[in-house]
Amino acid sequence: MTELLFRDDAYLRSCDATLIAADDKGLRFDRTVFYPTGGGQPGDTGVARFADGTTIAIVDAVKGATPDEVVHVIAPDVPRPAPGSRAVLELDWDRRHRLMRMHTCLHLLSAVLPYPVTGGQVSDGKGRLDFDMSEAPPDKDAITAKLNELVTSDRPVRFRWVTDAELDGNADLVKTMSVKPPRGSGRVRLIEVDGLDLQACGGTHVSRTGEIGPVRVRKIESKGRQNRRVLLEFEGTP
Known about the structure:
Elements: E1 3-4, E2 14-23, E3 26-29, E4 31-32, E5 46-50, E6 55-58, E7 60-63, E8 70-73, E9 86-91, H1 93-112, E10 117-123, E11 126-132, H2 140-152, E12 157-163, H3 164-168, E13 187-193, E14 197-200, E15 215-222, E16 227-234
Parallel strand pairs: 1-4
Antiparallel strand pairs: 2-3, 2-9, 5-6, 5-9, 7-8, 10-11, 11-16, 12-13, 13-14, 15-16
């Protein structure tokens, strides 16, 4: 079991940690700032700096055998340190922050387009949501304008916890039909964009919408009779 520091503070860039296991899958520490792949958000990358001076690149982070275990993936040819080794784990912060900004922006998109969400993906500088939408969606320029209006309103983004039973009693808290919120610990994390959106989500987010920056709808695609895919990107993305 790993202490998941990013759940309570997504802005932590590094932490001290102790290696508890190392195998072909990667490294497991007693605590981490690395978010593992899940909920449509990629795993973090960065480095582990060990007390003996060794620095190992972490190329991905994935979930382990239990919901609260994180495996820090390293290259297969890198020697594994011994369990008990002390290290400082450091994120590739610029990448993580871009993922946080886009993840929060996708929550705004789900407020602009209040339809069931059938899928989604956060990428570096880009993102998408798929909607169960039979009618033609609004013009992409209109969606872009509304999104940027919400971004510049600089609304607070907060989190809180509810029990599994409370979540089961309020189906509206789960917006994404294909991605279920992380469960297994008896409680589920909610992300609230002040006055706009409240939904179960285990990902990392910025603390205010103004931090997202200018965005645009790159394309709207039809993925079936009732499925529309809306693709976003940050202004200035190549």
